[in-house]
Request: fold
Amino acid sequence: MAERNQFDICVVGGGLAGGLAALALEARGFTCAVIDAQNPAAMRGQGFDGRTTAISYASARVFKRLGLWDGIAPGAEAIRDILVTDGRAKNRFDEGAVSTFQLHFDSRELGDDQPLGWIVENQLLRETLFDAIAAAENISMLAPARRASTHYESAQAVTALEDGCEITAALVIAADGRFSTLRAEANIKVNQWRYKQTGIVATVAHERSHHGVAQEFFLPSGPFAILPLTDNRSSLVWTERSDAAPAFLALDEKAFQKEIENRFGPYLGVLEVVGGRWSYPLAFHLAQSYIAPRLALIGDAAHAIHPIAGQGYNLGVKDIAALADVLLEARELGLDIGSEGVLDNYQRWRRFDSAALALGTDLLNRLFSNDIGPLRLVRDIGMGAIGRVAPLRKIFMRQAGADLGKLPSLMAAEH
Ligand SMILES: Cc1cc2nc3c(=O)[nH]c(=O)nc-3n(C[C@H](O)[C@H](O)[C@H](O)COP(=O)(O)OP(=O)(O)OC[C@H]3O[C@@H](n4cnc5c(N)ncnc54)[C@H](O)[C@@H]3O)c2cc1C
Reply:
């Protein structure tokens, strides 16, 4: 007979969203199982994910309140300024390559010595989450273990793993990423398209200090982001046309470095690419519903967006914090945490907010990833206007900090 295990919540997917969700919900008194198809030892490895994440200052509050920030802080570089430049050519040294329109977001304008966020390597985030899960009394991590099926009963959901084990829970959380099979099996439709762009990711060490400045240089093929890291290093997210990306990825070390130097310009002095290169095909996925009976979608399973504004995971963090509030309140009222009414509160809180941001980032990418004269004019006028109006700049900074709208208790500022 199959082994059955009973939990309050079964989280499918132990990525950055699923791992944090289990910790946030355990901190609210729920027992959780986390299932991931991949081996945690491989997921902790250096080659698994070369990305960094811009953690907004509101998301950082969640990590702090869950006691996770102390492990992250030594490897987190504060973002003091964001500099956005409309570029014209792929080589910064070309004549007229840099538009005169620049936008400068200065964290000092927000007061309180509050950085706009932090850049953290995904490997460190993952390790911190896995260590905390291993130490948590009421979380069981089952990995590598692939979910085979889930069936929903009147009072519980039963998730079967490929190894025959069964997990019963009042609620299943789909944190199984942009190609969520839980979402598909629940017949939730998705608005999706590909960007024909690939995110090339690498890390460079450099001679001069970045002074905590994140740069986004808009090139016709897509944004080229230089994100400050600890120890005089920066992380690149180089958005390239998907048909051109394989050739760049196949370059030898010297030629790859040259391409990067051309795009960086000289402001950080001598550069050296350190570590590997990664590539991520970019696409948009927005679920038309974030809930189904006994099922809640979070993270990329609900919304996977363009990395142009570094907000994808931050949206997931807000999902998790909102869900934690909704489920805690339901339990205190004696309600079934998997019931339609309870899950509807989660959906009403998160769906419009994340859809607006997802579509906003899509628009931003369409507006900037081209060299079309009239569009260039529109964006340059827009950048000029935002750059001159301090309240508008502050709204953009608070948006980047994920500090707008109704904030869940794990994210709200202390007063
Ligand atoms: C180039 C790039 C740069 C980015 N930069 C930023 C940034 O600066 N800031 C930001 O906020 N966001 C950023 N993002 C977005 C961010 O990386 C994602 O939103 C985030 O990683 C999604 O995490 P997730 O846990 O939802 O999904 P995933 O990481 O896809 O995790 C899903 C997990 O589910 C597991 N799984 C799937 N199916 C099953 C199954 N059947 N059984 C068991 N397990 C299963 C998988 O093994 C996987 O571990 C960036 C994205 C890209 C591509």
